[in-house]
Amino acid sequence: MPRARLPRRHLVAAVSVATATAAVVAVTASAGAVSTQDQARSAVQGGKAKNVILLIGDGMGDSEITLARDYTVGAGGRLDMDRFPMTGAYTTYAVHKDGTPEYVTDSAASGSGWATGVKTVNGRISKTPDTDKAVPTILELAQKGGFATGSVTTAELTDATPAVLASHATDRSCQGPADMASCPTDTIAQGGPGSIAEQSVDHRVDVLLGGGKQRFDQKVTDGKYKGQTVTEQAQKLGYQVVTDDASLKAAKGDKPLLGLFAPGNVPTEWTGKAAAVGGTAPQRCVTSNPDRPAATPNLADQTAKAIQLLEDRQQARHANKGFFLQVEGASIDKRDHAADPCGQIGETAAFDRAVKVARAYAAKHPDTLVVTTADHGHTSQIVPVEATPPGLSSTLVTDEGQPLKVNYSTNTPGQSQEHTGTEVRIAAQGPQAYRVLGVTDQTDLFTTLREALGVR
Q1: 195 flagged as catalytic
Q2: What is the pTM of this model?
Q3: Which residue spans within 64-217 are E strands per DSSP?
Q4: pLDDT in tens, 353-392
């Protein structure tokens, strides 16, 4: 069929708009070109990194990033995570016990992939898929190499993504001493390393910040610390323990730090109406959460404090090595599961502010590798406003004053929405950042981190 021809007046108007738009794009691109090109040249040079900051947006696929961008800075705007000089994609699949692919991963298997360089079965924490043997993690290698180490999360510190760094468990559910039903051979009574909480403090990670106080309040059932809570175990191991923003700010770097800011997951920053069958009335998100205690530190402040403490730890040791830090925005995933677009967007925005902190530090310390990525894709999709999609949907009114419709249809309404098996974005700056270019796999990130730190 021949293409319809526009009337001349419409054609002239369209060309004028396109020309003006192209001019704006050209000005915007040239304004940031110098710094981006300089960062790119530095990244391509490779070399070793003194510090590595890995930022994980849990469940933060391209749709989740786009949704947060559209709502907060506009369709033509850019988030801080959009400003890295090197951007690629990586595959996220898990495996079955026989090594065949499991196309949709959970956070345990995906995190184990970048933490160890070995793919495993869903639900397993930094262990082999077949023989259930512990595999050394990038945090453990960094510690042996003389680096300070830290982990920050908005989930429980015993949740899958932080757990993959400092523990080895047959099943991700084995978070505290009272939660070991699925990990009988991991118990201290059977000669194992204990729960994820026990292992995390026993590893003497320099900085641990997140939720999950309920796990650390559980009593150890066997071994040297039997009858004591995991928090008491941590204190015996030299940890200072903080529970709110004021005590976090006052913490010094002379001791390792355990920060527990919620009984479970840290409450989200934003709230709003969840998606519903047939959609919702247009809504603006509420950028405060009455269920979030005022004394709860935000993710960006935790990231900045963790960096400061890790630097202080190395200075106190008179060490010439830097640090390895992982930062997780966990509830992007959790609110995606709940089909809660406002909670999801607010957590993505909070994560992006942590990315800004990391990039600002790297600007002053160019020997720092900063990587941001996700562990897997998720369910949210931006659809036409006039669409009537199956499942759950919600219409938002963005900061640009425009309607934006979000759909959640990876499971039956009323059930938890599911992960997807798509590849996800990975972006980086600093030494070895060029390794993220193209399409790689999650296990390749382990090699990138290991090469940057120069550890074996």
Answers
A1: no
A2: 0.91
A3: 86-91, 94-95, 101-102, 148-156, 207-211
A4: 999 999 999 999 999 999 999 999 999 999 999 999 999 9
